[in-house]
Specification:
Elements: H1 2-15, E1 29-37, E2 47-51, E3 60-63, E4 69-75, E5 78-85, E6 91-99, E7 104-106, E8 109-111, E9 119-121, E10 138-141, H2 142-147, E11 167-168, E12 171-172, E13 181-184, E14 187-188, E15 207-213, E16 228-233, E17 241-248, H3 263-266, E18 273-289, E19 293-307, E20 317-333, E21 336-350, E22 363-381, E23 384-401, E24 412-415, E25 421-422, E26 428-446, E27 449-467, E28 472-477, E29 480-486, E30 490-510, E31 513-528, E32 532-537, E33 540-549, E34 556-566, E35 585-592, E36 595-602, E37 609-611, E38 619-631, E39 635-654, E40 659-666, E41 680-687, E42 695-718, E43 721-734, E44 767-768, E45 775-785, E46 791-800, E47 804-805, E48 808-813, E49 816-821, E50 828-829, E51 833-847, E52 850-859, E53 891-899
Parallel strand pairs: 1-7, 1-8, 6-9, 13-16, 24-28, 37-42
Antiparallel strand pairs: 1-4, 2-3, 2-5, 5-6, 10-15, 11-12, 13-14, 15-16, 17-18, 17-53, 18-19, 19-20, 20-21, 21-22, 22-23, 23-26, 24-25, 26-27, 27-30, 28-29, 29-35, 30-31, 31-32, 31-33, 33-34, 34-38, 35-36, 38-39, 39-42, 40-41, 42-43, 43-44, 43-45, 45-46, 46-51, 47-50, 48-49, 51-52, 52-53
Length: 900
């Protein structure tokens, strides 16, 4: 299959067309400026050239216009040299211009009258402030990717986001965990059902840079309410380069950080036990035809076997699989460039028991992923650029019980007192999702305007099968079956069509002052078999920004932006409307062996599941104000003020059920009534008419608010060191949490059994978001030490407040057991994260450009023991307050590498 896909992509690349040709586009870069003489007078007609080993198509030239301006656009990341020449003047050169993705460098060139020197090298280093845009993007460049101890598990490349200022636990700027738009080379790589990050298949060694877009993004970019995260893969160049690497974490080099656990947990919260953890990869890139055709290819294998902290299993969990990438970049003519990439991975995994799940509940997963992208750019003239792009994404995932258990049974049991799941996996699922996308953008420079217009189209198809093993899920009370949910499972299919159009202007209204007005229109349509079209929204996203280049040296910018960003359409917003192969959910009391007394029933039908005819797409209204100043040659200081208002969040409401207030007793932390820690009575709600639910997807007033101040110092690598230091103060509140699936009506607050469908679930829900981290400090840096023949030392220090939470308790009501928030979120907080990771790397030259290196990564140097991934068991019972996961202890990892 991989061979077929690769051949198909090569054909697509060569023809610049194909059956599966849209995406968010990729941030491309520019170098622009003016040429003037010694008196400051502008010089038209100057020949300006641009050179770089990364520049496919070879050296580019431009001629300054009547205002003395020149411009080079559609540039890949890399290091460039600009040269200006005019008869009667000495040639001026500006070398070592480091261009990051999505950045415009303003580089003015002075020419002096010809004299004793034919060529003058202009000093000043590479500009680090983009003074032409209102956006405030964050970037992780290749130096950081290759030198920092970023990843302990290379499969989880998305976790790199958590060392990005303003992002923690993948929640970006107050957005939900799944509200981020993940792309690779501009191609959407998230699963079409709910925007999850499972589809990201990017090895850090393959990345040129990571772009995090969101704050101040113009109308070209949508749709997301967290951040757009684009992983730019490496390309070939005129220099052949390659790499072979082996990484391993020996189990003997791992510490134990469970000593900080309470004594009551020490005996059962076993420390992490790594059985096998290794990764091996090779890659190569270079020219096929000098200046014209480049290639890049890589292959990776990894395997991780471990018994997690608190595991109850005897067989370790497993995560292994291969990944591959192949990329071609071709300048077919001096004006047309083509780029095509294939990525593939095939993950196999199995879980082990945990503190709250016995070993027999383990599951096994198979997850193949394919992502194909193609892009064409045509420089129609020195003022016009046309881009066409396309991609195909195929994702499937099967999660089933591990033998001898099967999806046919036996049924799983979940104990409301002990909090432990036993007998079998609680559920199973089989999903298949695809995306086919196409898009184009036209850029035109006219006078003081840079005008863009474009469209994107994508078709999403998603099929799923979900159910309980044996068709039942038992709730036990102290080891005895008490209640059962009977459900044979649902098989659904949804098809989504999303068409987006945008216009965007960058208007120089006055010298050094730009306005960025733009608007984006999206038409979302969703359909299911038998019923046809069921979902329709037409969100309009206006945006307006400004950038003031404060001084002639282009070192200071004041920026501001206000704009609306809508959430994308995902298939889970409507695929449940496919009720042709859906089963009723029956809640029943267990009155004896195989004897059940029904107390409630929900039957999926076109009447019981509906979508509001006036449904609006959820969105965030974002305000940004900031200032950035270049200090010295390579450092910038910035301050940003951020305010975001999340409105019209999707949620289900129940128009058919009738509730009446009743008094319920809070059983206290132990989960048992009649004991000393009982919390007293509170008002709950009893269902009066079981079996009459009418669930409607709507905009029932769900909201969230986020405010932040972010201060950043960023120094690019030069003079043997680089540094990023950032502090973010923030506050996230609302009546909807920002945890998984909350943006897409699938979370505990917004789902079909959430706070807007059941008044019991609305109790104490307004307040701090659980992924609210008031204080976040990030320090990451690298220093090349000249001692002992030279070696590199780098590190990452992160501090963040702990996640907010409040106690929940399960109470018995006429409709069955209901878990209610008895403490508001934010009543309690998890311990703060305070972690230091270090890397020491020694590089030894071998021959010519070949070198070998040996690196040692020291993760969690201070061996802190905190709750991993901000999770704690918040439901009253025997396991209340116990971590659901524990941070990885101090671990040493070594990497051996040969590269050229």
């Amino acid at each position: 299959m991989v061979t077929r896909r690769f051949i198909a992509l090569v054909l697509f690349t060569l023809l610049a067309a194909g059956p599966r040709p849209a995406d968010a586009g990729q941030l491309r870069s520019q170098i622009t400026g003016t040429v003037h003489d010694a008196t400051g007078a502008i010089l038209p007609g100057v020949t300006v050239s641009l050179a770089s080993p990364e520049l496919v198509g070879g050296k580019q030239t431009a001629v300054t216009d009547a205002q003395g301006r020149y411009r080079f656009f559609d540039l890949p990341p890399g290091t460039y040299e600009v040269t200006a020449s005019l008869s009667g003047f000495s040639t001026a050169k500006r070398p070592d211009l480091r261009v990051l993705a999505g950045t415009t460098l303003t580089v003015d060139l002075p020419l002096s009258l010809a004299g004793t020197s034919e060529s003058v090298t202009v000093s000043g280093g590479s500009p680090v402030v983009d003074v032409t845009t209102a956006a405030s993007p964050l970037k992780i460049d290749q130096m950081a990717l290759t030198s920092l101890p970023l990843l302990q598990n290379k499969r989880e490349s998305v976790e790199i986001l958590n060392v990005t200022p303003g992002i923690n636990a993948r929640a970006a700027f107050g957005g939900a965990r799944d509200a981020n738009l993940m792309t690779v080379d501009g191609a959407i790589s998230t699963v079409p059902n709910n925007g999850g990050t499972n589809g990201v298949v990017a090895n850090p060694n393959w990345m040129e840079e990571i772009q995090v877009v969101g704050l101040g993004a113009n109308a070209e970019f949508g749709d997301f309410t967290g951040a757009l995260v684009n992983m730019v893969t490496r390309s070939g160049s005129n220099l052949t380069h390659g790499l072979a690497e082996y990484t391993r974490q020996p189990s003997a080099w791992q510490s134990d950080n469970t000593g900080s656990l309470p004594a009551s947990l020490q005996d059962r919260f076993r420390p992490l036990d790594t059985v096998s953890h290794w990764d091996a990869g090779v890659q190569m890139g270079g020219p096929v035809l000098k200046d014209r055709l480049f290639y890049f290819a890589g292959l990776q294998f990894y395997k991780i076997q471990e018994l997690g902290a608190g595991s109850t299993g005897v067989s370790p969990s497993l995560d292994r699989g291969p990944r591959g990438i192949a990329k071609l970049t071709w300048a077919t003519t001096p004006h047309i460039k083509l780029e095509g990439t294939v990525r593939a991975s095939h993950r196999l995994a199995r879980t082990a028991g945990s503190l709250t799940a016995r070993p027999e509940t383990a599951t096994q997963t198979e997850e193949p992923i394919y992502l194909e992208t193609g892009r064409m750019t045509w420089t129609v003239s020195d003022r016009t650029l046309l881009e066409a792009r396309g991609s195909g994404f195929d994702y499937s995932q099967d999660i089933v019980p591990q033998p001898p258990n099967t999806i046919d049974g036996p049924p799983s049991h979940q104990d409301t007192v002990t909090g432990v799941t036993s007998v079998n996996a609680a559920s199973y699922r089989e999903i298949v999702g695809t995306r086919a996308t196409a898009g184009a953008t036209l850029t035109r420079w006219t006078g003081r305007h840079q005008f863009k217009a474009g469209f994107d189209y994508q078709r999403m198809v998603y099929r799923s099968l979900n159910g309980y093993p044996g068709g039942m899920l038992f709730q036990d009370k102290g080891g005895q079956p008490n209640q059962v949910t009977i459900w044979e499972g649902d098989r659904t299919k949804g098809v989504g069509d999303e068409s987006s159009f945008f216009v965007q202007d960058s208007w120089e209204v006055a010298p050094r002052l730009r306005l960025e007005p733009g608007v984006r229109l999206t038409m979302n349509r969703g359909s299911v078999p038998e019923r046809g079209s069921v979902f329709s929204t037409n969100p309009i996203s206006p945006r307006l920004g400004f950038a003031w280049d404060v001084s002639n040296d282009h070192r200071t910018v004041v920026r501001g932006h206000v704009g609306i960003f809508h959430d994308p359409m995902v298939v889970t917003l409507f695929d449940y409307m496919d009720t042709t192969d859906a089963s009723p959910r029956i809640t029943a009391l267990v009155v004896g062996p195989n004897e059940y007394q029904e107390i409630n029933r929900f039957t999926p039908t076109p009447v019981s599941l509906q979508i509001d005819s006036n449904l609006k797409q959820s969105y965030v209204l974002q305000y940004l104000a900031g200032v950035q100043r270049q200090v010295g040659h390579d450092m910038s200081l910035s301050v940003d003020l951020i305010h975001r208002r999340f409105n019209d969040i999707f949620a289900f409401k129940d128009g058919g059920s009738v509730y009446a207030p009743v008094q319920a007793l809070d059983p206290g932390p132990d989960g048992k009534t009649g004991t000393a820690d009982d919390g007293g009575f509170f008002t709950a709600y009893a269902l009066q008419n079981p079996g009459n639910s009418q669930l409607v997807l709507s905009n029932p007033g769900a909201y969230r608010r986020y405010s932040a101040v972010q201060m950043t110092a960023d120094k690019r690598f030069s003079e043997n060191w680089q540094l990023l230091a950032a502090y973010t103060w923030s506050r996230a509140t609302g009546n909807v949490n920002n945890d998984i699936l909350e943006e897409f009506a699938g979370g505990t607050d917004t789902g079909r059994t959430g706070a807007f469908a059941d008044p019991n679930l609305a109790i104490n829900k307004a307040g701090r978001s659980s992924l609210d981290f008031p204080n976040q400090l990030t320090l990451r840096g690298t220093y090349r030490v000249p001692w002992a023949g030279g070696f590199t030392a780098s590190g990452i220090y992160t501090y963040s407040s702990g996640a907010a939470w409040g106690r929940r308790a399960t109470v018995k009501l006429p409709q069955g057991n209901v878990t209610i928030q008895v403490e508001p979120r934010g009543t309690q907080r998890i311990d703060a994260k305070n972690q230091l990771d270090l890397r020491l790397q020694k590089i030894v030259p071998l021959a010519a450009r070949m070198r070998a290196s040996l690196a040692f990564d020291f993760f969690n140097v201070n061996n802190q023991g905190v709750i991993d991934r901000n999770r704690v068991i918040d439901t009253s019972g025997a396991t209340f307050g116990i971590p659901q996961g524990w941070s990885t202890p101090r671990t040493v990892q070594f990497s051996a590498r040969i590269e050229f």
